[in-house]
Design brief:
A: 13 strands; 16% strand; globular; B: alpha/beta; 3-stranded parallel beta sheet
């Protein structure tokens, strides 16, 4: 079956430059120019997933919107995706359509989250999804375009438009794209998808409604505890404090080597961070992140940053050089939105 | 020179017909259902509103039930309870 033809009011333009301006004029871009799709390129995207144009990828209940393969292909092409990226985009959309992710909250909230995407498994290396230098920065086509494709679908198909159904007060740069891979080649730890029950040879994408990444530097300590004490001091009173979302902890090369040398596992990291990011109810009331008057018991009643230690999602990624790592606070609370891992299926 | 076709990346949301019950002519003797979205202090604000409606407008009573979280609609148990035990519902509360 060919991509849908003869849609009511379909438009033709003279050249690519005019097409790009036309997409702008209709409000169909994220502010950057898009690649105009063609019938042939749409077909290539569909073939890469074995899907037909009207196949439903996900249904967004609150919006009563069906996200079809054809519309996904159009938006992914506009974002600059190659056909081989399409299965990752499809899996990410299935993940944000999952009730556990709870589309309405993170997509609409004033809290201004982006869709953080972590790709695991063989597909990450095959597509050359960056897990190293300039991890959250520009310069890598799959990282730049896969995340952008998801955002364009959110905008154009699901109607998540700034000021209308996206009420972000501030937003952040990750709303253009926020897609990385885990450094599975150099990491001594089980990758996230294996921790979550998938086989190493399976490929997955994990999505989390996320605020911006924050770097922390520790160039002084050569112990895991020393490095993580810096991380915990940064995280303890950070964007998610009081609400108990999940947090991603991205451990980059030099820090990872220190932790490996000391034999620390991801569980050790989670346990340390869980214990060392708690704050007393009294402090949280004094800084106005939980309500109420301070009582004597509040001085000794501790509130964890995240619901459980498993809610620190530890990821090996980032450059080999540099004594810095990062944490990413989740949006809202885990009760409202939690990370979802979805298998990437290829025909 | 050939023309380039523009492919529309958007869709229209499905229409959802919503039927509203008639608004009561007065709040006298009505039972109020309060949907707590679970954000900090939303319960306090809603109960304060209900108390004012009881004291000033003759409302009979109120019941408050929390949603599972702020980002989801009220779940079926709340809806079922309010259908049978409430005459009006206050559901809108923001930050």
């Amino acid at each position: 079956m060919s991509p849908t033809k003869g849609q009511p009011g379909h438009q033709e333009v003279s050249d690519t430059a005019e097409a790009i301006e036309y997409y702008y004029s209709r409000g169909w871009t994220d502010g950057l120019p898009v690649i105009p799709p063609t019938e042939t390129s749409i077909r290539s995207m569909l073939d890469a997933t074995g899907l037909e144009p009207h196949d439903e990828i996900t249904f967004i209940e609150h919006r009563q919107v069906s996200v079809t393969a054809e519309k996904t292909a159009i938006n992914a092409l506009m974002a600059g995706c190659k056909p081989e990226y399409m299965p990752v985009v499809v899996a990410a959309l299935q993940a944000i359509g999952d009730p556990r992710w709870g589309y309405h909250g993170p997509a609409t909230s004033t809290g201004g989250s982006a869709v953080f995407m972590l790709v695991n498994g063989p597909v990450a290396a095959e597509l050359e999804i960056n897990h190293g230098d300039n991890l959250f920065g520009p310069g890598f086509r799959p990282n730049a375009t896969i995340g952008r494709a998801v955002r364009l679908v959110m905008r154009n198909v699901i109607g998540t438009l700034p000021g209308l159904l996206d009420r972000s007060t501030l937003g952040h740069g990750g709303k253009y794209t926020f897609c990385i891979a885990e450094n599975e080649e150099e990491s001594p730890w089980p990758p996230l998808h294996v921790e979550r029950g998938f086989q190493p040879e399976q490929s997955t994408v994990t999505v989390m409604a996320a605020l911006a990444p924050h770097q922390f530097h520790n160039q002084l300590s050569n112990t895991a505890e020393g490095i993580l004490s810096t991380a915990c001091s940064h995280m303890r009173i950070s964007a998610g404090v009081g609400r108990q979302p999940q947090y991603v902890l991205v451990i980059a090369g030099e820090h990872m080597q220190v932790m490996v040398k000391e034999g620390w596992s991801k569980d050790d990291i989670r346990r340390f961070c869980f214990e060392n990011t708690q704050a007393s109810h009294a402090e949280l009331k004094r800084i106005n992140v939980i309500p109420g008057m301070v009582t004597p018991e509040d001085e000794t009643t501790m509130r964890p940053l995240v619901p459980s230690q498993e809610d620190f999602i530890v990821v090996a990624a980032g450059s080999k050089a540099g004594a810095c790592s990062a944490y990413i606070p989740g949006w809202g609370s885990k009760r409202s939105s939690e990370s979802v891992t979805m298998e990437i299926r290829r025909p | 020179m050939g023309k380039i076709r523009v492919f529309d990346p958007t869709v229209e949301a499905k229409e959802q017909p919503i039927t509203f019950v008639p608004r009561p002519k007065s709040l006298h003797n009505v039972r109020i259902g309060l949907v707590d979205n679970t954000k900090f202090n939303s319960d306090k604000l809603l109960i304060r509103i209900a108390t004012i409606l009881e004291q000033n407008n003759g409302a009979k009573s109120h019941v408050i039930r929390p949603k599972h979280s702020a980002g989801v609609p009220a779940h079926q148990e709340i809806i079922n309870e309010f259908v049978f035990h409430c005459d009006v519902v206050i559901a809108g509360i923001g930050d």
